[in-house]
Amino acid sequence: MGSLFSPKKILQSQYTMILVMIRNIIFLVLGIMLGIRLTDFIGYLKLWRNNDLRASEKAALLKYPVASEEHLATWLRREVRILCLVLTMPSSHATKAALVNRTWGARCNKLIFMSSQTDSNLNILQINKSESRKNLYAKVRTGMAYVHKHYLNEYDWFLKADDDTYIVMENLRLFLYPYDPESSVYFGCRFKAYFSQGYMSGGGGYVLSRDALRRLNLFALNSTTICKLNGESEDVQIGHCLQDVGVIAGDTRDFQGHHRFLPVNPFTVFPTILSNSWLEGYFFHKPNKSDCCAASAISFHYVKDFEFELFEFFLYYMRVFGLHRTPRALPSRLGFRQMNERLQHWSQQVTDNKN
Amino acid sequence: MPRLFSTRRLFLGGKNAIYLLILGTMFYAVMLHLPRNFKSREVVESYGPPPARIFCIISTYAYRHGHAAIHIHRTWVRHCDHYLFVSDDIDNHLEPAVFMNMPDKWHRMRAYLEYVYKYHFHQGDWFLYCNDDNFVVVDNLRHMLKTYSPKELIYFGCKLRTTNGLVFMLEGSGIVFSAAALKRFALTALTNESICSSETKGNDFTKELGRCLTNVNVIAGDSRDEFQRHRFLPFDADLHLGSSMNESLENHKYFLDHSYYPVNDMNLPVSLHSICFHVPYTLNIYDLYYFAYKTRIFGVPLNLGFENERMGLENKTA
């Protein structure tokens, strides 16, 4: 009679507690399932990342039927055909020229020495000019004309070097592979000059594309107004000629800004390039003084006689156990539009070296 | 019917914002711990037993800290498992162990080895002693020592012998001691005057070292490779690679007279897995380090097995 705890209400409260307990159990089970699923998802993310790496490597290997880097280098030797023109003189035939012939010159597709006297041990193009610095330009012109006349269509790139240059031909082929030899471009160690494009250091070696060599011979060397003989250095004059006939100076640095072509011996740029040296002021692209050189080095200059064998041993034969890097595939060849964009970018470069 | 599955809690607001914030933080923390660094290391792990730990002892002097030892500190010495510079004065960068008032080389050598045995013996299986004008490819040394045990009584270097048959190692081209050899030298040889003399020996201290180690049954090992090419080179790399030895030079004549192995045509065959070079101009260490560890040629493999080794050899001789 008017009691607060009626039997009906007590039964309803018990029923509610049972339902609340059921709800809690359901939520707990769902939470556990969600947690387990989340753990699987995290594991899936890790596996997916690992699979992604393997997939990219697999794609890189499937891009070419021969996966080995050694096989690619052998194939590259026939794909990027480089004719090497090496300036020498009779007093260097038995020393520097013979060393070039035995070391890096043997890896050229064709090797031609330019000298004033012939030699039975070397493939010499005899140029009847006295050996002096002022005749270097005329010598190089004669060599370029000869190569243009006889070998223009048999080779893709034409390298000019001195007999105290050391060229890593495999890295040069790897560097040149993406570029079209019918585009008007040349590569080397780019120096500043009084003309805007600059020139490539002669001693560090420069490499002309087929179209560059064609333009040089058809438009420049046959002209009486362009490329007149003057007192400048051979490489400055060649650089000026090539700019006048529309050949673009390419950028040979790697993606970290390290220089692949060196105009000096590497023994003079480590650990730092000395301040106020002649070298610091010559570079078109300002080098990082304490980290100047690329891992994919191509050229060294002022190489002494014994250093040819030293470079040969350390670069090709010396083995450091445990040193392992991912095998590389060849980069893609640039299409017509991409090549034009690259040429445009190179032609618009200005020097950042204010020394 | 009470509302057991309330829909108000699914909307953002009030306590729900706090719960969602906590959940988001947890999710972010989980994503943060996912491994994102798949960069390949410069030197990868090798299969099989762990490689030997190499403790490097670099002997230098105070007047050479700034122009010789500091460049070693920046280049090849970081490939050692542990290293210690020993000198006659302190240096902030090198932190050498200092041994003063010891003019004799043999006394210094004894002190160095005793110090290393007392305080650093637990840090290495092999102990490399060299000067501050050496360039050492420590990874090639580690590979050479794979076939030896640090429990063997053996030491390596550029092997020489005297006319009466005493075998010793050339000074200046690196000497490698096994842990057992160093222990026996420190415990048995140094404490016994009849086995190992403590008199001054001058420039002949490596001879005395060879005599001491022979007296305690430590073997002078053959450090050449399987083609009898030398790994510990007595002179500069450019001399061994591009030139010849000259009998009219005193140090060349000394080596030619005392060399343990025969020398043909004034030339030593150089191993493709060379270990120790002498560097006359210390800044050239950066160049050798650049050539050995940094430069990379397309198509030239960096880690050859045995079969490719022969191919490389044939290409070289062709």
UniProtKB/TrEMBL annotation, chain A:
| Keyword rRNA-binding assigned | no
Cofactor annotation: Mn(2+)
Pathway per the UniProt entry: Protein modification; protein glycosylation
Q: Name one GO cellular component term.
A: membrane
Q: Where in the cell is it found?
A: Membrane
- What is the recorded name of this protein? Glycoprotein-N-acetylgalactosamine 3-beta-galactosyltransferase 1
Source organism superkingdom: Eukaryota
User: InterPro entries recorded for this chain?
Assistant: C1GALT1/C1GALT1_chp1 (IPR026050), Fringe-like_glycosylTrfase (IPR003378)
Record field: transmembrane: 15-36
Question: What EC identifiers does the entry list?
Answer: 2.4.1.122
- What's the subunit arrangement here? Homodimer; disulfide-linked.
GO molecular-function terms, A-Z: glycoprotein-N-acetylgalactosamine 3-beta-galactosyltransferase activity; manganese ion binding; nucleotide binding
**UniProt membrane topology term:** Single-pass type II membrane protein
**Which family does this protein fall into?**
Belongs to the glycosyltransferase 31 family. Beta3-Gal-T subfamily.
Automatic annotation (TrEMBL), chain B:
What subcellular compartments does it reside in? Membrane
Keywords linked to the UniProt accession:
Glycosyltransferase, Membrane, Nucleotide-binding, Signal-anchor, Transferase, Transmembrane, Transmembrane helix
Recorded superkingdom: Eukaryota
**Molecular function, one GO term:** glycoprotein-N-acetylgalactosamine 3-beta-galactosyltransferase activity
Task: Name the Gene3D superfamilies on file.
Answer: 3.90.550.50
Q: Which GO terms describe its biological process?
A: glycoprotein biosynthetic process
Q: Membrane-spanning regions, if any?
A: 16-34
- Mode of membrane association: Single-pass type II membrane protein
The residue ranges of the Fringe-like glycosyltransferase domain are: 54-159
Q: Which GO terms describe its cellular component?
A: membrane
Query: Which pathway or pathways does this protein act in?
Result: Protein modification; protein glycosylation
InterPro entries, per database record? C1GALT1/C1GALT1_chp1 (IPR026050), Fringe-like_glycosylTrfase (IPR003378)
Q: Identify the Pfam families for this entry.
A: Fringe
Q: What is its EC number?
A: 2.4.1.122
State the similarity comment. Answer: Belongs to the glycosyltransferase 31 family. Beta3-Gal-T subfamily.
Q: What is this protein called?
A: N-acetylgalactosaminide beta-1,3-galactosyltransferase
Q: List the gene name.
A: CG33999
